[in-house]
């Protein structure tokens, strides 16, 4: 995405939002416009990442289709890991990490 920047976006923000954006852009050594554009572009790419189209040749498609049809398999230790208590399961407040 290079070239002339002829298009504009106009945003209305609350004073607290503007102050937050100004502080963050200043802390990152950027202008507010560059900061907002970078953050918005990254967020848009993240949202669209799993909606991309991918094209496979016939051999690759068959392998992909076969993988989708396979039964799930047990992963050693995963069941125990996911069923073990975590720090969030502790009953007393303030006891995490002790």
TrEMBL record:
Keywords: DNA-binding, Repressor, Toxin-antitoxin system, Transcription, Transcription regulation. GO terms for molecular function: DNA binding. It holds the Pfam family TacA1. The keyword Repressor applies. SUPFAM superfamilies: Ribbon-helix-helix. The keyword Cell membrane does not apply. GO terms for biological process: regulation of DNA-templated transcription. Belongs to the TacA antitoxin family. This is DUF1778 domain-containing protein. It comes from Candidatus Protofrankia californiensis. The lineage of its organism: Bacteria, Bacillati, Actinomycetota, Actinomycetes, Frankiales.
């Amino acid at each position: 995405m290079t070239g002339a920047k002829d298009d504009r976006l106009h945003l209305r923000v609350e004073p607290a939002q503007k102050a937050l954006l100004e502080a963050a852009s200043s802390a990152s050594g950027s202008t507010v416009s560059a900061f907002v554009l970078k953050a918005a572009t990254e967020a848009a790419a993240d949202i669209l990442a799993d909606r991309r189209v991918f094209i496979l040749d016939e051999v690759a498609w068959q392998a992909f289709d076969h993988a989708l049809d396979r039964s799930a398999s047990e992963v050693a230790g995963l069941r125990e890991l996911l069923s073990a208590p975590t720090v969030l399961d502790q009953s007393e407040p303030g006891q995490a990490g002790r």
